[in-house]
Amino acid sequence: MAEKYPTGKSEENHIPYEAVKAIADNILSRIQVKPVIGIICGSGLGSLTEAITNAQNIEYKDIPGFPVSTVAGHVGRLVVGMLEGLPVLAMQERFHYYEGYSLIKCARPVRVMKLMGIEYLMVTNAASGINPAYKVGDIMLIRDHINFVGISGNSPLRGPNDERFGPRFPPMTDAYDPALITRALGIAEEMGIQDVKVGTYCFLGGPNQESIAECKMLHTIGVDAVGMSTAHEVVTAQHCGLKVFAFSLITSKASLDYEKKEYANRAEVVAVGKSRESTCRELMCRMIKSIAAERGTSDPSCGCSM
Ligand SMILES: O=P(O)(O)O[C@H]1O[C@H](CO)[C@@H](O)[C@H]1O
Ligand SMILES: Nc1nc2[nH]cnc2c(=O)[nH]1
């Protein structure tokens, strides 16, 4: 059992290893495959799940102990099945800190994936381009993050550490697997994706958009794209030893200039996601296919190219 907090009570949302295992076992008992890859779909990028064959859908609300999404229009379900020859479990969609959950709860599904036997975490998100060279519709492979929410101590790993998940002080160097980034660059070139970016994602708490002064600061400290997710999931994944691949779809450009204001809205995020969904889907599918080939489990009959 995880140790108790100094107050004698477990902090809200901090559930012990055994409870996470119970959620994992509950899902495993209801599905026909044993997933190797976990996928977290970003806003507007959930259509990847349509490429999953023999799909079984499980609503978050039907999984005891699993958080439930609160954002209007969010689907909130797991889709489990085969993708490019590998068993996968996809989250359509994720939990955000601004919805009111603790980060511990937002990242709980990652620990559930780990205890289901999943080895890779593939993450997508919609983000705003801070790097002036970035255009709406660009894909940015995430090489690193600045976890603004985490730097101040708000971490999904806060509280008693259970070594069965991972070490107390996990390193974050190479949290985004460099070999998978290199592979994705090759795949993007094969696909003819124009000018794929590799950059640093910044996690802010949201839900408000950034002020112009905040955007200027993010630019100064080396941020390429900003959003309201991902870093806490990746911290949790790195802590428990999952291999991570992640990319952002740039759905808006941040304002760095008081004379040239840009505004991002939810409809725009969704519209850009829609216009780039086939490319994002194909990139992810080809990544999974390459992992399947590496593991000797390729299935030539599979293919989600559009
Ligand atoms: O990070 P995902 O889930 O893609 O969502 C992004 O899009 C929403 C803003 O429209 C925010 O939640 C932001 O984080
Ligand atoms: N913080 C933040 N997250 C986003 N996600 C999609 N667009 C944005 C944005 O402009 N700002």
TrEMBL record:
Q: Which UniProt keywords apply?
A: Glycosyltransferase, Transferase
Fetch the InterPro entries from UniProt. Answer: Nucleoside_phosphorylase_d, Nucleoside_phosphorylase_sf, Pur_Nuc_Pase_Ino/Guo-sp, Purine_phosphorylase
Q: Which residues form the Nucleoside phosphorylase domain?
A: 37-288
Record flagged with keyword NADP: no
Reactions catalysed, as given in the entry = 2'-deoxyinosine + phosphate = 2-deoxy-alpha-D-ribose 1-phosphate + hypoxanthine; guanosine + phosphate = alpha-D-ribose 1-phosphate + guanine; 2'-deoxyguanosine + phosphate = 2-deoxy-alpha-D-ribose 1-phosphate + guanine; inosine + phosphate = alpha-D-ribose 1-phosphate + hypoxanthine
Q: What is its EC number?
A: 2.4.2.1
Q: Does the keyword Glycosyltransferase apply?
A: yes
**What GO terms describe the biological role, i.e. biological process, of this protein?**
nucleoside metabolic process
Under NCBIfam families, the record lists: PNPH, PNPH-PUNA-XAPA, PRK08202.1
Q: What is this protein called?
A: Purine nucleoside phosphorylase
In the UniProt record, what gene is named as encoding this protein? PNPH
